[in-house]
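Could you help me review a protein record that somebody else here produced? What it holds is a sequence and that sequence's fold in token form. I need someone to confirm that the token line plausibly describes how this chain folds. Take the sequence as given and treat only the tokens as open to question. This is what I was given:
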Amino acid sequence: MQTRVSRNIAAIGVMLMAYVTFAGLNALVKLLGARYAPAEIAFFRSLFGMLPLLALMPWQGGWQALKTQRPLGHLGRGLAGGSAMVLLFWTFQLLPLADGVAIGFATGPLFVALFAILLLREAVTIKRWMAIAAGFMGVVVMVNPGGHSLNPFGVAVALSSSVSFGLAMTGVRSLGRTEKPVTTAFYFALVATVMTAVMLPWGWVTPNFTDLLLLFGVGAFGGIGQLLLTRAYQMALSSVVGPFSYSAILWAMLLGWLFWGEWPTLQVIAGAGIVIGAGVAIIFDETWTHRLARDA
């Protein structure tokens, strides 16, 4: 029992490290967003993000780890994930950092759960439907329809990013049945790099040396964060580590306040609280459902 507890604590630590890394990525993206288009930042994030994955290859079976029989699956996941990335980076240009992260990161798991039901035909309980419904009520509170405290276009971009994220993670779940995590991560970075490279002629700005280092940091943070995230889910059940993904909102609030003097509105905090509660309920219900199916 003590071994399991210790392993869970270690997994939670790795999960928190992953989202501290993502917080650094988001802050750099917001900083660079004043000078560069979202697609250009996403290009460098994807390109440089492949470097940690390539460094890991010798311990994952070498280039054999890149063999796949599901190229179309990787293509679809990469296009959805790349779209989610560009839209999220655009969100940080349109909304305060904490608000953008709260809407984007908090609502993403709701669309993951919804698409898993609709596209993967995963088992669903009344409790999960209720949690999804409650989560979307929290989204309504966050975006405050009829109000004027948040940029409506920025909110629409953030929610579009969440929809794309939901589709991407549905692809990850499907690919996870046959593919190694490093394989899925590498092809995501490759597809996203090519996709965003196509967008570069529209709005390209040649980065200076300092900004190039910052863009390298975006890629490094992204690649390392993905590896830490994958490791956390390997070490413990999603019901143990999944809820700590919402720490992203806390880090964003802290960084937004420290560097830009931003603070989320009360409606965003209240709505995010509802969505987080719903997301945690979905994680636990999903884990319980899978455990019952396994023991049946």
In short: The radius of gyration is 19 Å.
